[in-house]
## 1
Amino acid sequence: MCSCSYHDGMILQAEGERSKIVKHPDDTYELCIDKISDDDAGEYTVKAENSYGTADVSAKVTVVDEKELFKGIETKRLLNPGMFYI
């Protein structure tokens, strides 16, 4: 079986400088990106091939500033110091 992951047409390495592709016991995969930045936005594509054929799926990823995302939403303090909920 062949499986490849791409970001904006460029192949992703299984273990990059800030990213890694993790295979889970149920044969699903997860792309983990550390310290995400605007450069990580774009189209991500996974292509897989085996004896039954080929398949691919794409998703558009947008990076937003967390502060802007939650702007105007009131936060309330919980009993544990440092813990907040929205």
Note: The longest helix spans residues 66-69.
## 2
Amino acid sequence: MIFPKTYFDLEFIEDDNSVPIHENVIKHLANVEIFVKEDRRDCLGWITVMELADTDLWQILEKNLVSWSERKRLLLELYDGYKYLEQVGIHHYDLKVKNFNLKSYPII
């Protein structure tokens, strides 16, 4: 299976089996491009639609109720998901704790 080289290529894939899937990566559902009504050549931006997350890493760390061993486990899982995305050609250029969404994580 050949994966897209850039994040933007994902929106052109019609076969759901081609979209990269990893246990530590939230499911990507769609990209919505925003254009000026009169000119469809210049995209003003886009909205990414993903699965609903329970929380983000910032909220978990801010409450300071997570043990160091749990923090280490979270870090390793996040790193594993990030490395997977890099391997399939998807790069995230705004990495910060608020941008790491967590699904199925016990809300503290």
Note: The chain has one domain: 7-102.
## 3
Amino acid sequence: MPISPQVLEDQVHEWAKTSEKVLLVKHAEERQDERRISSREIFEVLRKGKISEEPYQDSYGDWRIRMHHVVAGRRIDIAVAVKKDKLAVITVMGKEKS
């Protein structure tokens, strides 16, 4: 069933208010360390970021989205799976603001 990007974005913002509904998968943790992206920056993107690509539903029925936000002068992008009851952060990417 289709869902609007705005509804997904609002849901992510709401769920990211507390860490209980957010899971960082191992790959995301590895990229977080490699790219020197803090947990605070990840939560900032989840709480205030905008969806930057069209959401799609994967084979498990989860919605996959990519969000971005500028944190401390650096653009952070996060790939997220919006599951039935939580968010799974799949990967994180950072780019210096130009």
Note: Strands lie at 22-24, 50-51, 56-57, 63-71, 74-82, 87-96.
